[in-house]
Amino acid sequence: MKAIRTTCAYCGVGCGITARVIGDRSVSITGDREHPANAGRLCSKGTHLGETVGLEGRLLHPRINGNRVSWEAALDSVAGRMAACMEQHGPDSVAFYVSGQLLTEDYYAANKLMKGFIGSGNIDTNSRLCMASAVAAQVRAFGEDVVPCSYEDLDAADLILLVGSNTAWCHPVVWQRIEKARERRGTKIVVIDPRRTETAEQADLHVAVPPDGDVALFNALLYQMRSRGLLDEAFLADRVEADADFWSSLSPGHGVDPGAFRKLCGLLAAHPRTVTLFSQGANQSICGTDKGNAIINLHLATGRINRIGAGPFSITGQPNAMGGREVGGLATMLACHLGFSADEREAVAGFWNAPTICSGPGLKAVDMFRAIHSGKIKFVWIMATNPAVSLPDSGFVREALARCPNVVVSEVISDTDTARFAHVLLPAHAWGEKDGTVTNSERRVSRQRAFLAPPGETRADWEIIAGVASRLGWGDAFSWQHPADVFREFAAMTGLAAERGKALDITGYAGLDRNGYEALAPFQWGGERPLASGFPTADGRARLVPVKPAGHATGKDFPLRLNTARYRDQWHTMTRTGLSPTLSQHRPEPILEICSADAVRAGLTDRGLVKVETMSGESVFRVGITDAQRAGEVSIPMHWSDAMAGEGRTNRLPCQDVDPVSGQPGFKNTAARVSPV
Ligand code: SF4
């Protein structure tokens, strides 16, 4: 039985997997002991991937308006619709909404087509919902979207702060690594989270920060470190720039329990080897970028960065959010960590031999769907994602899709909430059939290899994109025959970034032949600490960014704060994990968690039904009364959709408010009210 080394389909930990095909669409899955991200460990989701590779529900043939058609007809239709929109309404009437589930090669092809050939910046990704605020914070502080840490820093840290991260459930293999560090060297673990999560239960200290209270807390921590004389003055003088008003912007007010704050200050003061791991709980906020900078400020000012066991570490949700960021899948970046200056646009246009390079950033995810709703965007191509469930105010998103005259969806599952709106439905390869690369949270590029024959008429996403580009007359620029050809082109293109002082540089792989690509071992761009030799700003110095706590309105109509969360054994909108009977046993339905005082006040009973209402919509859930939830706050998992759970659809509830810098929606703090059903 041949063993194929690949990577997990789910989270940004990026675990290596060994897959052995044992029968028709039947596969045994084990952790890859040689992969540096996981050394053989897997969590429940990765372990049960074999239960999700069957053909039940697969989209196997192209369809137009629900009818099976040939690939020729489907690609002609997509290209024709796109060309008509561009001709009649200009390039900005066209948009792509892509996904951290795409491989880097797919992402590269989509970005090139949109930004270099269609001539619009309107390509954004569901990674906007996941870590766009961390990206923006890193760009503001470091001059480039660079994660300055590696997993080995978790092994070497004396103190790990987990901010807005239920690591034990959402990044379980990283959690196992942290637990090991605790066993081996007594690493202290602090969880900073409004909820007492499963991770907080196991921490040395849980700091129950108010919703969106992280900026005040990290400003106060830095204020304390400065008062105690614990700044790294030499590092500040040598490597860091602060605005004139930075130090006066700090305040001692922290908003958390004074005893917990004292303990946290004591731990910080005693343990210079500190890693702060932050995730969606910090990012999914209308002040997420400021939270990221408040965290980075603390690390820069105390010199806890670019050293083993220290640094601010943003961990991504999806398997290839990082790869998408590298090639330029966010509307706010051109390509390969380059922006939209005249020099950068000229360089990219020259590299691609692009006829119409876009003039500036495109619309970010929430704005993109607003533009679809208003009719400004008349063509949207959605690839490998399910925005009808996953975007905030999903009722509005469904309205937008229903109004849009040209909806193209590339999918592996035939009947998702989003696929129901498609005029053209394109069958793509699924995990196990896909062949390409992904980048995990520590910038490690790994191969995702095919080990199953593609079923039906499914195709690789990059190939589908190239097919459309060719019909639009740009075949020469999209003439790749193999994913290795796309990867080589991307690797060569990072030379443009390197020439401009960026850390992203994988030009060493630009000459890889197909055998070399096939055998490619995991590698980390930038090495373990990519900013150690200098920050990629014009003067080589990082920036301390003054940030102020944001306020949120509460009112008697919506007195509660609604947080959206994730379950251990489900992934996003469950189109894959929902196929696994084993995973479905953990939490078979979505539960609204509420403390007993709020439940009594609202007339709710444990296991009864509750209607949750916000300014955006309403949904019904089962009630779970728990003291893990504080008074005034409730939480619900985000996974379930209409199709799967009747009325239990969570993302109908969060509103469209976004962080003003990153455009990331504030999923974690929505004004809500509850009543019995
Ligand atoms: Fe997959 Fe993430 Fe679990 Fe690793 S931790 S097995 S990458 S879901």
TrEMBL record:
MF-aspect GO terms: 4 iron, 4 sulfur cluster binding; metal ion binding; molybdopterin cofactor binding; oxidoreductase activity
Q: What is its EC number?
A: 1.7.99.4
- What cofactors does the UniProt entry give for this protein? Mo-bis(molybdopterin guanine dinucleotide); [4Fe-4S] cluster
Keyword field contains Lipoprotein: no
Q: Which GO terms describe its biological process?
A: cellular respiration; nitrate assimilation
Q: Which GO terms describe its cellular component?
A: membrane; oxidoreductase complex
Q: Where is the 4Fe-4S Mo/W bis-MGD-type domain?
A: 1-57
The alphabetized UniProt keywords are:
4Fe-4S, Iron, Iron-sulfur, Metal-binding, Molybdenum, Nitrate assimilation, Oxidoreductase
| Family, as annotated | Belongs to the prokaryotic molybdopterin-containing oxidoreductase family. NasA/NapA/NarB subfamily.
What is the protein name given in its UniProt record? Assimilatory nitrate reductase catalytic subunit
